[in-house]
Amino acid sequence: MKRRRLTIFFVAALVLLTILSGCNKGDSGKQLVRIGEVTRSLFYAPQYVAIEKGFFAEEGLQIDLTTTPGGDKTMTALLSNAIDVALVGSETSIYVYLQGADDKVINFAQLTQTDGTFLVARTEEEPFDWSNVAGTEFLGQRVGGMPQMVGEFVLKKHQIDPKLDLELIQNVDYGNIPAAFASGTGDYVQLFEPTASIFEREGTGKVVASFGTESGLLPYTAFMARESYITKNEAIIQSFTNAIYKAQQWIISADATEIAEVVTPYFDGVDADIMISSIDRYKQQASYAENPYIDELEWNNLLDVMSSANELKGDVQYGEIVNMKFAEQVLDEVSSK
User: Taking the complete model, does pTM exceed 0.85, yes or no?
Assistant: First the structure.
């Protein structure tokens, strides 16, 4: 009887081990990686390219992509292990770090290197001058988020105090900002693509300036994971970074029409010409990073933007929550060929 119990125990243990070892395997037998993206945007075209062109599959990965609207929700999903990797603004990792999290959130690959929003005016302004914004109603973004911080940074750059020189509206939820502007709220609004281009076509507004061009290079959106996950899954993170680099290089050589064709499945109901014009705008201002490497100058520019918005509550050194080991390896492999 004792021997039979031991046999049953070992069989049960073997079954459990098999189940656990397969927990992170996808239907194809490839390693499953769950990504949570902060929003669905043409700004993240390289990510969709990496999926649709099979770059992740080539690296032995199967991707489960979920949109987790807003930085707070995305970070909550990451910290609670609902996702493995987050695509979100690097500022969220800084907030987590400064709160003293035991398991730090580490930036390991950059996707976009500029702000992705555009200043949309209600009417055509030729030529546009930033001084036009003073004394108006400005429909801004969420307090503490990168779009809003960059918006304030750029306004200050043009000698406009966002708290004193205009009426800054920040009580509208992120998802409702376009509808609020379309219904008459604000003289100016800060919008991502493709919404900005759609508004132009509909006559709702006109793109008059780019916050990405005005604010310079910074790790605006990056892939990040918990430090514990990276430590346990270095091979996965390396494969992931390799796939992103392949997509970034493909984006560089492709034109906006080719890119739009590849990412179409992610944007139901968006006309092809709108997608093409949106992607072209991002390519022209070099929003899509050419490689996953975050350099220290970009990181410091991010800290300057946060400090200008009074959202940086402590010192965050580059090496504390930025790990470029995986980006360096893929770049070293390329340079050695």
Answer: yes
